[in-house]
Design goal:
Blueprint (H helix, E strand, L loop, with lengths): L4 E2 L3 E8 L2 E4 L1 H16 L4 E4 L11 E7 L5 E12 L2 E10 L1
Antiparallel strand pairs: 1-7, 2-3, 2-7, 4-5, 5-6, 6-7
Amino acid sequence: MRTALVATLAVVAVLISGCGSTIKPEGAAKSVVDLVKKQTGFTPTDVKCPEGVEAKEGTKFECKFTGPEGTEYTADMRITKVDGENVEFYIETRPS
């Protein structure tokens, strides 16, 4: 079943690095796992999110993961709010 998933918001901590803030890849990955599990009951595996993503509203990036039946998926991530060490995302998933 290849269904696109749409989520509202997820929260993840940011890591202060050098002069700016960047998203913790493991925190973004946990947000993807939590979202997919909540909406579908399936727990995705091998979630990979990039390092060095600036924690700034409007920033977009992709995480990749393995879904049901070994299908590769992409989670399109967009930062909607940054509040201290909390970041809110809008997440959409789709088969890669």
